[in-house]
Queue: 3 jobs
Job 1
Amino acid sequence: MTEYLLPLEQMIEQLGSLPGVGRKTAAKYAFHLLELPQEELEQFCTTLLDGKRRIKTCRICNNLCEGEVCSICADPKRVNGQICVVEDVKTLMAMERAGSFRGEYHVLGGALSPIDGIGPDQIDVAGLMDRIKTGPQPVLEVIVATNPTVEGETTALYITRLLKDSEIRVTRLACGIPVGADLEYADEVTLMRALEGRQSLK
Amino acid sequence: MTEYLLPLEQMIEQLGSLPGVGRKTAAKYAFHLLELPQEELEQFCTTLLDGKRRIKTCRICNNLCEGEVCSICADPKRVNGQICVVEDVKTLMAMERAGSFRGEYHVLGGALSPIDGIGPDQIDVAGLMDRIKTGPQPVLEVIVATNPTVEGETTALYITRLLKDSEIRVTRLACGIPVGADLEYADEVTLMRALEGRQSLK
């Protein structure tokens, strides 16, 4: 391992804390930033700090926003009785990219994982229940779009159980073969789930 | 392309300016930084700015240093009449990692590239010539360790020409097959150069 000057080492260490960045990549980034003119590096840092300062979470659904409420919650056309529950904002954005969901969201900020000490109090299930009970519009369906992982499934089951005595329909995104993928390379669990969820053609 | 909130877009744009970082990776970094506690993001930025402020270039060889002169130039044991000329500090560090060179360095800060408008005045050839002419110790050999690219070769030729009337030996790193590589996959030019530079075994 190369020993760099201490201030450079510290830069590399900080840059290495970015997700998926190892020491070599961090060093590449550090050298790049070191070669920038002073004002460009200052702009770089100011933009990051400004972003952090300006971006807040929506008080209704926890989506990112600049004001009090996000653009989706502020849009009356998005009120259709459906709430899509996601683990994080990135999933919300992926759903928006897909473009076919026209209801509202609720961002939990994680998924239940007892091993990691993440229980119902660590994610925003309470906020979801609050919206369902006291929201201005009746909720007809909760679409649980947590990840198809152990944690995501656990969270989906937990939410289903909380709503089991209500009239609300609780659904889950379909698991199956990704469009364009080759069946030959699909894993067993996905194939099994795809078979279970098969759709009739006639 | 997903449209993010403006401050987030700006963060992504800045992070996307890091070498080899595309929009998707930049978004991943931005979300990570956004999720950091305020003080950790501040520490991240402070470390980058501090590094930039504290790291200077050696007034003798242009290596990175914290004071006036880098640790190599300040080390009397490194004076052996050899100067290894490199394009950038990263190459210097790679040479130091290899560990067999015991002389001094000179960092040019680039290589000649007329197409990109980089002539002899844009890289520190003048500093090198100055050291050779007026340095405290006589220089016996200049090892030109510029990259085996068109620009690097041009630079090597240029330096050779500048020194052609002096007594100084000018050498170039050997080109050939990288150790551990498979000859089958070596490109033609490398194979040709390896053949030209073949060494006698007996």
Note: DSSP finds seven helices and six strands in chain B.
Job 2
Amino acid sequence: MFDTTTPAAPVVPTRGRLRPLGVSEVRITGGFWSDRQAVNGSATLSHIESRLESEGWLPNFDLAAAGTLPDGRRGREFADSEIYKYLEALAWEIGRTDAAVDSDLEQRFRRVVDRVAAAQEPDGYLNTMFGRDGQGERWSALQWGHELYCLGHLFQAAVARARTRPDADDGLIDIARRAADLVCREFGATGRDAICGHAEVEVGLAELGRALGEQRYIDQAALFVERHGRGSLGEIEFGREYFQDDVAVRDAEALRGHSVRANYLSSAAADVATELSDEPLLHALRSQWGRTVERRTYVTGGQGSHHQDEAFGDDWELPPDRAYSETCAGIGSIMFSWRLLLATGEPQYADLIERTLFNVVATSPGDDGRSFFYANTLHQRTPGVPADPDATSMRASSSLRAPWFEVSCCPPNVARTFASLAAYVATADDDGVQLHQYAPSTVRTTLPDGRVVAFEVSTNYPADGDVRVMISEDAEFTLTLRVPSWAEGAAVRVHSEDDVSESPAPAGAVEVARAFRAGDVVELHLPIVARITSPHPMVDAVRGSVVIERGPEVLALESIDLGADVGDAVVAGDPAERDGQVVLPVRRRSSDDVVEAPLVAYHDWARRGPSTMRVWIPTV
Amino acid sequence: MFDTTTPAAPVVPTRGRLRPLGVSEVRITGGFWSDRQAVNGSATLSHIESRLESEGWLPNFDLAAAGTLPDGRRGREFADSEIYKYLEALAWEIGRTDAAVDSDLEQRFRRVVDRVAAAQEPDGYLNTMFGRDGQGERWSALQWGHELYCLGHLFQAAVARARTRPDADDGLIDIARRAADLVCREFGATGRDAICGHAEVEVGLAELGRALGEQRYIDQAALFVERHGRGSLGEIEFGREYFQDDVAVRDAEALRGHSVRANYLSSAAADVATELSDEPLLHALRSQWGRTVERRTYVTGGQGSHHQDEAFGDDWELPPDRAYSETCAGIGSIMFSWRLLLATGEPQYADLIERTLFNVVATSPGDDGRSFFYANTLHQRTPGVPADPDATSMRASSSLRAPWFEVSCCPPNVARTFASLAAYVATADDDGVQLHQYAPSTVRTTLPDGRVVAFEVSTNYPADGDVRVMISEDAEFTLTLRVPSWAEGAAVRVHSEDDVSESPAPAGAVEVARAFRAGDVVELHLPIVARITSPHPMVDAVRGSVVIERGPEVLALESIDLGADVGDAVVAGDPAERDGQVVLPVRRRSSDDVVEAPLVAYHDWARRGPSTMRVWIPTV
């Protein structure tokens, strides 16, 4: 049934401009992201499992199997989904590391799957919160119940398993299939005319349909997408836009409401548009993406400026000090952008992915992989208090990373993203391979006509901007390298046995098409220097301020480096680099002294203890 | 038992710098506030009663009396309190209008009191949400249950009744006394060592103690105040500062957490400090007030910049577009400032009261007195949708006034404030009378030594700044007139039979001490012209913007006057007055055309339908 040549990637459309490469075709071999993948594998995954146990969220499945629920159930409505995200992360980690059947990773995966399997009802229903005596009825609480949401994450976990270990006998894929069949029976065209209050089942169903070759799952995803915008979920304090039930997806002008929900739904809509060749829908989504990035996205790539409803604000409403910028919204934005990149091939989508990876996703986990930012403020006014490593934070927003949260969506979301990250590095088309993200890596794939494309990428990116691609096997193909929009003055140089050619590389993408020989080298030079970025004049909250960026990284000023609270800091000159460290002349309003303050990458803030911090620094 | 010479005022300390004058000593006879008092009396009060009936909050008391609760109880935990605030408003309205015993107002008051009385338990307990079979136990949910909070409002209602109709036989005062006695038994020094999650019982107990001469009520209020800051309410998502349980009241540096709670608690602490001559506590409160006004208060006087927890932000965190600035927080701020004014006599407190009255409290009600702003944003980015006059809003924040809210604290809070407003106009001391707020009014009071001070105030304030005080009866006394901090170039002129003298009136207060004759006139001239106010440089959110003010009124730019969305408006010149209308040259970023746009008083915004609006207008 499976197409075993399918890339081991989270998103594998059947059509579109670019074909993804999976985690067996692209390996990240060192550098910035490899370090994070290593910590994710060695620390984060076991941290998550230990918390899923101690919080009772995984034991909920045992209680379900024992028939003793609802007594003893712990966690919120969506607790089940964290187990599925953890399974997804494990599946990608198994694929990424090519873990053996008797490996610890495989054993852990199978043990959790067994516990989930035991909780599934004979008809495929699977949820520890609903459907039993003493619980709410199945599907009776679609507004806040998250039943379909949880199943969407189950489906994504099954997709990860199906694409990395298609021949595994653990049963997860069958669990997902039975649940998906139930969803189609219950919510199909002749079933309940309803949607879930948190989009996710759509993107899960669409991908499960792709992975298992079940068109009706994709059609069911399309039905759910189209059912948004009719107000069927009812009115709530935050308005119907909270769950994108205010306007039909294809009629909306921008992402709005709860920013994770918005991005998950948009991702599903992109999947559906691609699979059903729904060009008007794809056009609408691209337009919404454009307006959202221009007017509703922080300089970090972060999305969502409201704490109250974890939602997008109005156009231009981007306060740095109350940036919610949820880690999961950043991941959702990457999901959406990635689908548009695959559909269109346009580098702007990869640009935003890079911005969001470096400045939202990389910001969340602590160095030890056991603490996380849930929200990612751009301005911290008061130093925080170190989190108790044994505690569970009740607060999504904090000035220091916390080990776990009452609503703990972010840690497993980061884990599954890091474990599958290689799948976002490169794509292929009929003519060659496109490199979207720069990391030390090896790439080897086969083009549709049988040509093998293989190369090795060496780089210190983002510490510097030199990216060296060495061809490993002779082949004629087109190598496409993304040139980020900030990389003014970029150049590409091709070294072959016979000659060296150099040409400018304007922002967008540069193509090198030739009959490559093993040993040929393509060098991309991206000028990485500290630069001053002024805000869009319509953004009221940062008027009269600037941000310092360097390559893909947004920089920040921390009190620990200024030697004083950053509250009254004013830019007093241009940034410079001293021994590889960006420094900025800063005046303090209270003293008028000018000091040269080191800046840190935003993703590195709050790693040295409590601190106040600014991304946007006033100039007046 | 009652001291019938007590002023009919909400706050009557037994010591302090100034003695309040009650609603029988000061009558507002015309102008800005008289108009609002008239609408309050003719429309708002009956609107509130009709909603208390239709929402089921008043019928809850009937169910309690019938013994059928909890079945059929409607409304949130704090619903009882709205009935008490309504009773308080009615009591002040009866006092203000000197309503007869057989008047409609009196009949309505007594009917509601009868229904409340029937619900009180024999031991004094009174709450429709707790204590019965099928309900939570009494005092079992102090964090969110609002039982003591509700009683605090009952006490304030009883105080209003005791001070306006001390000889009434309706029984409200006894109801309050029985409930207060129960609170003292349950929560006294040897009782439960606990506090309520929403401060209010403290301020109610303190004043009931003053009104009934019961020192132990004041001591109980002091106990509750001192019990804050020990974390006894537990941890919540918003932190312990939400209910001011993070730091002892006397150790805090500023108001913080939920802004209504913070102001109610601070008001109670001021009462306690005054009654117990606790100078260190009073000193701490004054210092907290200063920092809060400097760093945590909007230009409108509004407080609370967080929607999520209805809370103060950090110092300097004052985003206009997400200003929560709850109407009730403004009222709470007036309560706190008024107590500090009585204790100290310093005009800065009356300045803030004026700012808050004109720009928060006056902003809330619609012209018909049947719709209200709950939150008071300073920047509306999208025009709203007119509220259904029959609906109940689920949202506290809206761009248009709504008739009622699921949490409907604001309408009755506005009603009780308007009905008692005359009590905030003037005070007395041993030497004379201080006029704090300027409105057409008559004042007549007796000083401690028997001198009668009587005068009439005529003014068009705030349309213009000429205030004319004509003495009605011969008397030697000191007339003190507040000179607002914005009134640069103010002057006072005294006309008597013999001479006319004029002198400058620097910001603060000007005293005119003499043997006045009936017919003497004191004229205060406050220069009221449109002025540009620049923000404090530490407030990030409005850097590069200014606000236009005129006298005590903050002005706003509405799209309906600009003829376009105000989002891209930039100040292009100085404000001017044309035929009594302030106009401002405004450039639009999108067109570069400069137009002269009329400005409206902020309290008048959104009275002509959906509109976008700015208080802070960019200059760059």
Note: The mean pLDDT of chain A is 96.
Job 3
Amino acid sequence: MAGDGSDQRALQYEQTLMYGRYTQELGVYAKEEAARLRESGQRRSVSDRSRTLDLLEYDKGRCAKCRICTVRCQKFLISRVGEDWIFLILLGLLMALVSWVVDFCIAICLQAQKWMYGGLDSNVFLQYLAWVTYPVVLITFSAGFTQILAPQAVGSGIPEMKTILRGVVLKEYLTFKTFVAKVIGLTCALGSGMPLGKEGPFVHIASLCAALLSKFMSLFGGIYENESRNIEMLAAACAVGVGCCFAAPIGGVLFSIEVTSTFFAVRNYWRGFFAATFSAFIFRVLAVWNRDEETITALFKTRFRLDFPFDLQELPAFAVIGIASGFGGALFVYLNRLIVQFIRKQKAINRFLMKKRLLYPALVTLLVSTLTFPPGFGQFMAGKLTQKESLVTLLDNRTWAKQGIAEEFDYIGHSQAWKHPQVNVFVTLVLFIVMKFWMSALATTIPVPCGAFMPVFVIGAAFGRLVGESMAAWFPDGIHTDGTIYPIVPGGYAVVGAAALSGAVTHTVSTAVIVFELTGQISHILPVMIAVILANAVAQSLQPSLYDSIIRIKKLPYLPELGWGHHEKYNIRVEDIMVRDVRYITLNCCYRDLHNVLLTGHLKTLALVESAESMILLGSIERAQLQSLLSQQLGRPRRLEYIRERAVAEKKRLSVVSNPDSEDGSQRVSQEVRFQISTEESTFSPVRPVAQKPLKPALKRPSVVERPTEIPTSPQDNSSIALKNLFCASPDTEGLEDDGDVEDDMTIREIAEWEEMQLDEQVNFNNCKIDPAPFQLVERTSLHKTHTIFSLLGLDHAYVTSIGRLIGVVSLKELRKAIEGSVTVKGVKVRPPLASFRDSGTSSSENEATELHKLWDRHKSMSLPREHTPSESDEKSQ
Amino acid sequence: MAGDGSDQRALQYEQTLMYGRYTQELGVYAKEEAARLRESGQRRSVSDRSRTLDLLEYDKGRCAKCRICTVRCQKFLISRVGEDWIFLILLGLLMALVSWVVDFCIAICLQAQKWMYGGLDSNVFLQYLAWVTYPVVLITFSAGFTQILAPQAVGSGIPEMKTILRGVVLKEYLTFKTFVAKVIGLTCALGSGMPLGKEGPFVHIASLCAALLSKFMSLFGGIYENESRNIEMLAAACAVGVGCCFAAPIGGVLFSIEVTSTFFAVRNYWRGFFAATFSAFIFRVLAVWNRDEETITALFKTRFRLDFPFDLQELPAFAVIGIASGFGGALFVYLNRLIVQFIRKQKAINRFLMKKRLLYPALVTLLVSTLTFPPGFGQFMAGKLTQKESLVTLLDNRTWAKQGIAEEFDYIGHSQAWKHPQVNVFVTLVLFIVMKFWMSALATTIPVPCGAFMPVFVIGAAFGRLVGESMAAWFPDGIHTDGTIYPIVPGGYAVVGAAALSGAVTHTVSTAVIVFELTGQISHILPVMIAVILANAVAQSLQPSLYDSIIRIKKLPYLPELGWGHHEKYNIRVEDIMVRDVRYITLNCCYRDLHNVLLTGHLKTLALVESAESMILLGSIERAQLQSLLSQQLGRPRRLEYIRERAVAEKKRLSVVSNPDSEDGSQRVSQEVRFQISTEESTFSPVRPVAQKPLKPALKRPSVVERPTEIPTSPQDNSSIALKNLFCASPDTEGLEDDGDVEDDMTIREIAEWEEMQLDEQVNFNNCKIDPAPFQLVERTSLHKTHTIFSLLGLDHAYVTSIGRLIGVVSLKELRKAIEGSVTVKGVKVRPPLASFRDSGTSSSENEATELHKLWDRHKSMSLPREHTPSESDEKSQ
């Protein structure tokens, strides 16, 4: 059972691949492997049983039954630990605690700032210093800390999670270091009082938690190693992240689905709901236990009247909020991207900022906090309120303005901040909206862990409030004509505005649900839904969502969505977008062809066809496999082998004809010897760990067993060392072992000659990992269907075949191009209306594509090397 | 442009298949086809343009520009009509109107019953007669009407929609007749006051609306013919159905997703939200316009207090409701299935009921209405309340009971029904729950259009009310200890109970959202979520959902879900469940092999491999294709052809040697002649309409053009007639045309001999539709992944290959068996805990499987014959 660990790893790896991979002809290997696995499983259970029996024997005198019971209980518990719901409860609990602690720390930070600011009210300059220095220090610390510990923790996290759930592996993205950096960085960043949110980061933190918990739990059971399960758990974790951030389980699940998934498995639905509900529950219970609340209620509870929440004639106003929010949301995304691109393009600024990485955050914080300084400009925009306080006041169910002028409404608590002796409440609101808008767009570009959802939410609420107050001023007695007077509730408008603007920025409908859960009231459901849908309709036709925009900025591998009902997609065919010049290798090609193919192209996988004439697709081979094949064929170990062989032949010849000039003679006979070797040598597996099938070559080609030390012995190659160890005891190897110390005495010319000869040999694919069922499409498959399949199965390329014959290949790149509208078919330029506005953001598509390829490369090389790939280190033909 | 219509049809068909189908080697055909299509598209646009130009010429004198403008506007409008949102708005509007009209009619029916009952209060017997006769007549009419017009309209519709969205085509399920039957049947059934719901039927009605609207709209534009688009629209329609039924857009979308989908495309999300919101909006606006409501509010508005909705210590009570509802829900599903199976098994009853189809509904109605007769037993179970009234009273925010005894609570309106002078309110509630429980389970088996959601919802509310009243009686001053007294709100418990029980029966979490939208309050979100999740956990481990249960009863083709975290699924491999004895045909087989394969197996598709030795999978061919190939080879037209040929040869021989004994001589030379013919004859396409590629055989084999009348002229074969017409003018056919009237003068023995000879010929697959890329798996693919792929892509079988070599096949049947636990792997019997309880319902799995195959057969034969398949009528080898 020595190879158990590697078996486990190999097993796990194989489960991640859809099509598996087999190295031997006719699937014999797979069957053996399956039989072996089952056998080992039986053996394990037998050994378990025997251990129990041993215990029984050992403790016969004492309370043996008790012992056995304990063992069984332990086993039962461990098997239970493997169940999903335990994992989800733990995840929910953990995230609720994290969320609560983060909130608590943020509150303390903000209180500290207020306290400092309040304590220094004798001197405005000192007050200003305190007001400004505090956030600058916090943000700078956050940026620095994140930069040093884990730069992956910067930003929202939702774009990255979207990419990860698409099947891409992002390096270092789900590690403990990132977790620490994200949590501490986020706390400091939000504690500074800058207009930043915690939602996006919490999605990331929850995913980190899930990944770490998964790793931890795998110490107990084995199921946690399954990749598809991990993806399912990550999807649930995203829901938990949103859920425990807003105490909004339903909205959390829906928002996380909308934001991270393309296709959602309904069977995962309950996982999200379960974990998010538990998390939200614990999160709110903690507040009750901490005596912050009397019982579990909504986070931003509203108290609108229930019997007549709004009049039917107010609906146009709600629709206006929706449409305006749509434009606003698109503008926000555009502004955010513009700032990033501006800073990137200005080489001078860029170079300067790159050197002093902490300067940019500090400068931005300085600017923002200076403008919000309450005795300064802040007095006109409720600058002294924190984000939470402003939201609470904005959702207030009292009307601030009546008859067009700001009246003496009974300012209770924080609402006072909105009142300015000289300035109308409308002016305050407008200033608040405008200033916060660009401040938020700017602040979210700071390299700290932060989200944009909450700032946008507050701006939306303010905008809704503005419209609501205007309506209240316009119709002081309400619109309803007959009977009772129902005054207009501006707070309801604020709710609608918040949902609409955040929906527009994130391109989601579920912000409506989040709003209901946040406010604890669902009475405005229809206005909210109408506004959110209108906002989405407008924003989606103008700009990508904020997360997609970040994906583009960060150049993550992505596949754009098919837009709102662009039915031209049904008319484009794969044949219109496929690459017809496919790189392929034939079954009977020689190593020289392999070499040429590897030199000229840079695709990750190559098609394997039967012959250049028939072009029947047999499978696909990864580039790394071919490289290892080639390097195996040309590598030093094999050359040493050749020299040794030559020496042996020489010796034999010497012993027969007693001719001492070995050097020249051996070269003369080398050809016959070489061919003799090569037919057997190439059965050596360059990649597969030997533990998995140590005796397979022996079964197939008995001659190998007779000459086992012909297998090369490169020091890096653990598997071959293992093999050597395995065979060491074999008696017939001893006679040859003294040849191990042959010198590499070939000249460069000789080596070149030798390599030339090697290149002419036919490739032996026996031990090469071939994906026997790469995904195939036919020419007539529509773009719509292709997109669906690519999204569903997370493909990055598919071959186009016609009755088994390879005629083209489609990769994500072509698909993306086609969707984004650079392909014209039947005279129709396929692009969304108003897309020209969007072009400015996607000009550098060529760069993106190469970046994409790099990322894929990384992805591939990261998901592969669970198996030992020794030959990659000494590749020659990269 | 004569073949345009059939082109369109063929195009449409091709879009429905994922992998397309090509009849000629090496994809040449596809390229030609694509080129041809594009050309015709260009031609069309050219002709459009020329038409415009014609107009320009024609109207030069008059307001030509005006005309052109009109044409353009018209075109623009027509193209707009094709956009999704227009369709969705129309669908929403239509469904809102239907929902409102149905509700209105139901209300009138119920009022009429009350009026009759109230008017006859002098005589109890007359009262009873009126109370009982009215529903019996209505239900009998509904059952009869549905039976006569469209039996497909019976029942809920959700199970069928689930099957349809899975990709199966159910016959006659989305027709106008079904629409009429469903709407009228549903109105009558619900107007009778029986415990039935309108939710399920509304999902079906909305889908019907969408399908009909799609057909109607396709008169304007061409996009409505796309199958994937139709599926998307059907998914949106399901959301609309729930949304406009409860005025619950969000809950509607979520519920429809949970109930009908396995994998949900997030890009369809907005469609559902958009249409459902619009529909719910119109539905509620109609109520306002009808002066039923002052403004748009929830359907069953509650008025619970907002500031302290529930105490933390009440949560255990809510959890108890959840768990009890879970058991209750499972019991309901079990009871429902038991009743159906009992009636089916009792042969005597069954035969009697089959003869008098309307007797069963009448009897059930009589029983139920007798028991609810208000002066009789109905007085103990609030029998005189309609479903809607009971729900309103149950959700009331006042407490009915205090200190353990029913107090004189101020009975306003319908609440009085719950009060009985002698009997405690608890007894009334218990009786209500128990009686309604079995009544609902029984009533939903009546063959009328009806759902079970609403009855279950009411029962759940009553159960919640019962627990709530008990709690209120137990803690008269509330549980909260410090400070203010917050009495317990039993109405909140009713909300929780309603959501939990309906969630348990349907296995959905989104009933929580529906409840919030129905009541207009979200304050109880955490209790509701906790109860719903617990109820789901319990119910899902005991029984399938009501809809899955109906799917099993109706034996619809389905794929069971993977249960709650049964991680054994990750350890089963395809190789454990696949069928290794695959039926295949080789590329070089003869017709005899084909014949044998068709005789012995009954699979829908057969694998095409290169040869029996290599077993390289080239594609799959449908059974019907092979049958038509075979019948073509052995059919009468071809035999007549042979006779004609023979006669011609005879004539020639006569003209040369002048020997009169033709009969014997022709038989002697028949062999040579036959072979000469057969090589050319077999290029004739048996299935493909000739309009698609009339000249293809000519291009490939010039000899055919020289002898065009050799093509058989069976009267049913339109395509060959068309071909004949095409070639009729050709001069070299005239000399042979007098042979058209040859007599079928072969004896049976001769025919048998001839057929034997034909069977030995090699099959020519040239004109056979081959799916060149059937879905392939490898042996190591896990069951979990296989299930995912099958669900995602809607497959019904997949081939298992190993480097292109076919080694097995997996179909839905095997997959279902594996999931339902009849396969044991590694000693673990894969089945959910407590599954033994479930077994009683699935004993007849073998019957199901055969039924399934029949359904698939039907599905296949329905989705195929968009193309003309003349040879199916004269098949010999079925």
Note: The radius of gyration of chain A is 34 Å.
